[in-house]
């Protein structure tokens, strides 16, 4: 168990990176506290797996250092870092039984058979694999195999951090939920730090206490699910998290007043003075509502999503999405909408003003 | 209600294949079956003999001897080529320009016609003028494959290893390359040494391609003819006379059509049986 600190980590897969795009992982410093449940969330190719492999020691960063508590492990190989990793596709040793699979990491470390047996049975119990310990691992279904991968990590008592690289990709939908709650339960029971990589916001938000959102090789925001929802630091976060994502509308700033399509908008924050940079307002569909007198819009599209409706409206060439409950009566094709001032934010060049 | 359309025209599309198979497999095989139960003294006159030739072949010392030689040869080359091929595949580079270079080098022996391989090794191994023969003799080992049975055997085996190990290498390499990186990463994290990685990841994942490699080498080596025929002609004496060389001697040398036909059927059944046994053994526990 330890706190993991990344100090000025930067990584490139090229031998001599020069341009900004050459870096798969832009410079970052991060701390992961002991026992936390983290999610690394971002679209494919944003550098999540690279970051994960750097922590696990499968990759050595081009620059920067990794510390586990007060030990610099930057040049330590994966097997001495005491980490566990569950991969996207289940990795099991086909020719071995479930028992031998779980025992493998312990036997490799020369632990005596009595201890191995005790641990394997304990972990088998924890993962509901007890009745299948004697069967061959290759005969299990995908979720069983993922449990074995996880078990091979848990079986070591000294494990610092368990990392999951999109572990539910190949799992059937109805089992995803089961396995996810199992992970949650294990986290509470084992108390090890867990880092969960995913591009699925539901997985990230349900699993983690802290979500790290990545975009283009950099960390955009770290926060609790509520923070990410209510105060996205970047329009990307607003757009990526939430269903549908945040509305991002171009605006101008005039005499300390935020103007969208010629109309003044009340916002939480404001940028002082006139600005030449790209300015936008961000407002979640949940906080847009119909009203008697506001922004004149036409309704373009209505999508029923069960308990709510997504209504797409148009004003002066800008499409705005709103999420209204199913019992809200829909007005006629031409109507008015308003933004909740407490949830309307101004972004400059994509970043939330006053967001630090 | 299910409507089943019957369209007999489909048979016409299968017809070319049936004709092809009939001409290149069924008819020749049946001709052999026909010969195997008859005796002829030429002039296209045949007498029915029943299973006499089969009994003769099965009791013949000559057949036993060449079958034994054949089994020894096949076992030897399998025992050398499979481990050697896997070992070479393991040491081949995984990426970069050297991959293509290695693959081309490996493929070269496979591209050489069989009789050329025999001729090459014949000249290469000649004790007086061949490079190999001269070198071996010059270091004090008495080596002459045209007169000494041990030398003849060593040369034949060496030639086959040179010619066919590449096939095993290419198959094993393909099998190795298809293992996802995650397995090696997991093994690293689990603290597995290189032997454990080989034993528990690489070898099991190569099982299918190695099965194919063993079957191909088994069948091919069991039917080997051209290379030893060109190299040693089956000699000295009969020491490198394998089944197919013996068969040709009987069928074309002595023109004993009946015994030769019976022998080739037995030969065919042995190959079939061996392949079945190997396949069943290697595929046991698969898909459980």
Question: Mind explaining what this structure looks like?
Answer:
The complex is a heterodimer of chains A (356) and B (288). Chain A has 8 helices and 22 strands. Chain A has 356 residues and is α+β, with helices and mostly antiparallel strands. In chain A, a hairpin with a 2-residue loop joins strand 9 and strand 10. Chain B has a domain of 195 residues: MetI-like fold (Orthogonal Bundle). Chain B is built from 13 helices and 2 strands. Chain B has a two-stranded antiparallel ribbon. Chain B starts with 9 loop residues before the first helix and ends in a 5-residue tail after the last helix. The model of chain B has no long low-confidence stretch (mean pLDDT 87). The interface between A and B is medium-sized, with 27 and 18 residues.
Give the SSE layout.
The complex is a heterodimer of chains A (356) and B (288).
Chain A: E1 4-11, E2 25-32, E3 37-41, H1 48-56, E4 63-68, E5 71-72, E6 83-86, H2 98-108, H3 113-126, H4 142-154, E7 161-165, H5 173-190, E8 193-198, H6 201-207, E9 210-215, E10 218-223, H7 225-230, H8 235-240, E11 247-250, E12 252-254, E13 257-260, E14 263-265, E15 279-283, E16 288-291, E17 295-304, E18 308-315, E19 318-325, E20 334-339, E21 344-348, E22 351-352
Parallel strand pairs in A: 3-8, 3-9, 6-7, 7-8
Antiparallel strand pairs in A: 1-2, 1-4, 4-5, 9-10, 11-15, 12-13, 13-14, 15-21, 16-20, 17-18, 17-20, 18-19, 21-22
Chain B: H1 10-36, E1 38-40, E2 46-48, H2 52-59, H3 61-91, H4 97-107, H5 114-125, H6 131-138, H7 149-177, H8 181-189, H9 194-205, H10 207-222, H11 226-231, H12 243-253, H13 257-283
Antiparallel strand pairs in B: 1-2
Largest β sheet strand count, sense and barrel closure of chain B = 2 strands, antiparallel
What is the name of the CATH topology of the largest domain in chain A?
Rossmann fold
Number of strands of chain B: 2
SS-based class of chain B: mainly alpha
Radius of gyration of chain A: 24 Å
Q: Average the pLDDT over all residues of chain A and give the rounded result.
A: 86
Order of helices and strands of chain B: HEEHHHHHHHHHHHH
User: CATH-wise, what's the superfamily of the domain at 61-255 in chain B?
Assistant: MetI-like
Proportion of strand residues of chain B = under 5%
What is the fold named in CATH at topology level of the domain at 61-255 in chain B?
MetI-like fold
Count of DSSP strands of chain A: 22
What is the architecture of the largest domain in chain A at the second tier of CATH?
Answer: 3-Layer(aba) Sandwich
Q: What structural class do you assign from the helix and strand content of chain A?
A: alpha+beta
Summed over residues and divided by their number, the pLDDT of chain B gives a mean of 87
Please name the two chains that share the biggest interface, counting residues whose Cβ lies under 8 Å from a Cβ on the partner chain. A-B, 27 and 18 residues
Q: Report the oligomer.
A: heterodimer
Sheet having the most strands of chain A: 6 strands, mixed
CATH domain class of the largest domain in chain A? Alpha Beta
**Count, helices of chain A:** 8
Indicate the overall shape of chain B.
globular
């Amino acid at each position: 168990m330890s706190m993991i600190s990344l100090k000025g980590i930067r990584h490139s897969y090229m031998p001599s990176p020069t341009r900004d795009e050459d870096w798969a992982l832009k410079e970052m410093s991060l701390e992961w506290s002991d026992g936390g449940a983290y999610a690394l969330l971002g679209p494919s190719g944003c550098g999540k797996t690279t970051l994960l492999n750097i922590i696990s020691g499968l990759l050595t960063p081009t620059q920067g250092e990794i510390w586990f508590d007060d030990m610099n492990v930057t040049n330590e190989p994966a097997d001495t870092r005491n980490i566990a990793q569950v991969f996207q596709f289940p990795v099991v040793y086909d020719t071995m039984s479930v028992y031998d699979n779980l025992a493998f990491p312990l036997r490799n470390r020369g632990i005596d058979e009595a201890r191995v047996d005790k641990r394997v049975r304990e972990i088998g119990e924890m993962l509901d694999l007890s009745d299948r310990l004697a069967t061959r691992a290759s005969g299990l279904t995908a979720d069983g195999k993922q449990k074995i991968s996880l078990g091979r990590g848990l079986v070591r008592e000294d494990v610092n951090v368990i990392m999951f690289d999109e572990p539910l990709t190949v799992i059937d939908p109805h089992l995803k939920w089961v396995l996810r709650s199992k992970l949650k339960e294990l986290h509470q029971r084992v108390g090890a730090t867990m880092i969960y990589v995913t591009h699925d916001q539901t997985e990230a938000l349900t699993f983690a206490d802290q979500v790290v959102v990545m975009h283009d090789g950099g960390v955009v925001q770290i926060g609790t699910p509520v923070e990410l929802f209510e105060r996205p630091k970047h329009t990307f976060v607003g757009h990526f998290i939430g269903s549908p994502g945040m509305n991002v509308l171009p605006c101008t700033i005039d005499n300390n007043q935020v103007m969208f399509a010629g109309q003044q908008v009340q916002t939480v924050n404001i940028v002082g003075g006139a600005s030449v940079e790209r300015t936008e307002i961000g407002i979640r569909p949940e906080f847009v509502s119909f009203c008697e007198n506001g922004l004149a819009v036409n309704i373009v599209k209505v999508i029923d999503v069960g308990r709510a409706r997504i209504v797409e409206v148009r004003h002066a060439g800008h499409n705005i999405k709103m999420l209204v409950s199913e019992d809200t009566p829909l007005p006629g094709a031409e109507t008015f909408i308003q933004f909740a001032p407490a949830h309307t934010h101004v972004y400059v060049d994509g970043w939330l003003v006053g967001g630090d | 209600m299910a409507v089943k359309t019957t369209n007999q025209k489909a048979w016409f599309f299968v017809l070319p294949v049936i004709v092809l198979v009939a001409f290149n497999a069924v008819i020749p095989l049946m001709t052999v079956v026909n010969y195997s139960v008859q005796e002829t003294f030429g002039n296209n006159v045949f007498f029915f003999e029943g299973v006499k030739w089969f009994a003769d072949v099965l009791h013949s010392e000559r057949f036993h001897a060449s079958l034994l030689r054949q089994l020894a040869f096949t076992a030897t080359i399998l025992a050398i080529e499979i481990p050697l091929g896997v070992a070479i595949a393991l040491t081949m580079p995984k990426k970069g320009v050297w991959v293509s270079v290695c693959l081309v080098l490996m493929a070269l022996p496979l591209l050489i016609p069989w009789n050329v391989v025999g001729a090459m090794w014949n000249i290469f191994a000649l004790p007086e003028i061949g490079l190999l023969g001269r070198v071996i003799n010059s270091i004090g080992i008495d080596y002459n494959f045209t007169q000494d049975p041990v030398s003849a055997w060593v040369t034949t085996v060496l030639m086959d290893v040179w010619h066919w190990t590449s096939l095993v290498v290419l198959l094993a390499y393909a099998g190795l390359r298809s293992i996802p990186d995650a397995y090696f990463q997991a093994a690293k994290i689990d603290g597995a040494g290189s032997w454990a990685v080989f034993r528990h990841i690489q070898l099991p994942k190569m099982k299918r391609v190695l099965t194919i490699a063993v079957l191909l080498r088994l069948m091919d080596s069991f039917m080997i003819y051209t290379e030893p025929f060109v190299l040693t002609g089956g000699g000295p004496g009969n020491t490198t006379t394998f089944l197919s060389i013996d068969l040709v001697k009987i069928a074309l040398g002595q023109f004993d059509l009946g015994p030769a036909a019976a022998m080739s059927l037995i030969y065919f059944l042995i190959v079939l049986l061996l392949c079945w046994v190997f396949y069943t053994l290697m595929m046991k526990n698969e898909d459980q």
